[in-house]
Amino acid sequence: MERKFLYHKFFHSLASSLVNPFMPIFALRLRASSIEIGAVSTFPSLLNIYGQLLWGSIGTLARNRKSLMLLGGLIYASFYLLIAHAATPQELILLLTIQSFFFSAFVTYYLELLSLNLPRYKRGSALGKLNVAASLGSFFGNLAGGWILHEYGFIPAIFYFSTFFTILGLMFLSKTEYYTTSPKRMKMFKEALKNKRLTYFLFVMCCFDFVSSLPGPFFSIYLVTNLNGTLFDLALLGIIGIVVGGLFYDSWGWVVDFLGRRATMIGTLVPITLTPLVYFLAGDVVPIYLYTFISSLSWAGFNLATSAYLFDIVRRDLSLVEIALFNTLTGTASSIAPLIGGAIVENFGIRAAFLLSFLLRLLVILPFLRLRETKGPIKEKILRGSGEETKEILRNTYLIYSSLLTRMGSRGSRLRRRLKVTRVFS
Prior knowledge:
Elements: H1 3-19, H2 23-29, H3 34-59, H4 65-83, H5 89-117, H6 123-152, H7 156-173, H8 189-192, H9 196-213, H10 218-225, H11 231-259, H12 261-281, H13 286-313, H14 319-348, H15 350-368, H16 377-383, H17 389-425
Helix pairs in contact: 1-6, 1-7, 2-3, 3-5, 3-14, 4-5, 4-7, 5-14, 6-11, 6-13, 9-14, 9-15, 11-13, 11-17, 12-13, 12-15, 12-17, 14-15
């Protein structure tokens, strides 16, 4: 993995974490209604999702996609300068929506660039390093953004910093090589659907993203309204997730490469599935703090494995179209789910949404068992056996987490040996 990708990931995450987590509060400061606050995230998300389809189609006709990627990133960064001076909620929603459209151009071509540059046999490790860089950027961005807002409020300078760091990240990305296939060889989305492994994985992930996002916005609401949590608790839980991801991404990359993408996905699904049940049973915030470490650890491994699996199954000459199609459909499932979850909460209460999400997550584990491994025969011999689904899920869970802890232990031992050597020679 080239360091240019790592530097870009760090500065891009730093820039977005300075302001994006606090955008609903900015909308509230502009006297936005509840519906307008919801629109601040919904409209930009939807345009970002479907914009990738459009840019994927344009990319099949463009010979220099690197220029399109950088142009989209520059326009995206410059919109922070306009957002800083938004005077009404409607103006803020409009600017964020247009910004997300150009961001979708950047994301579409960036993912293709990433898929073409990832080492084939160490994709998990490479993605782990990328996510470590992103976690560091998000950590410092959240801290800096929170401190600036606490001391000075929503001053325009915080948006200017986001523009600066985004462009700084693009400067590193501009130095990478972007080799693409000839437009004559590119085909459209109908051809992409002929990839049977992609279509099945797409079906599985759409189902999973839907059931996972069903109670999504209501976890934080339930924490504050029912478990006597505070806004500080919400911020601290978010920081715990970032720190845990940053500490374990590198080791997860090794697990994903050594034991396989499918095995890691199945093994991490068990703790992820239990998350809404923990909220359903919790009487205060203490169990949430304890389980946030486990769930954040599991999400880090699951997201790493799904990304590596996707990059494995897309075809090189159709990677631009197939990745755009995957992101569009899974993003649509994630966007629709909170609306249905809101209807369930309105009629049956938040706890009913948690219970339903838990039961549906249990069912969705089963389609993951039919995925074909992409990382070679080692995992097939270790992880396939009796064919009994429950035993296979539990066996995967045990092997994945024991391997992760073993890897972390070996890294710690090497670090201690280095420290001892340093003391001897100092």
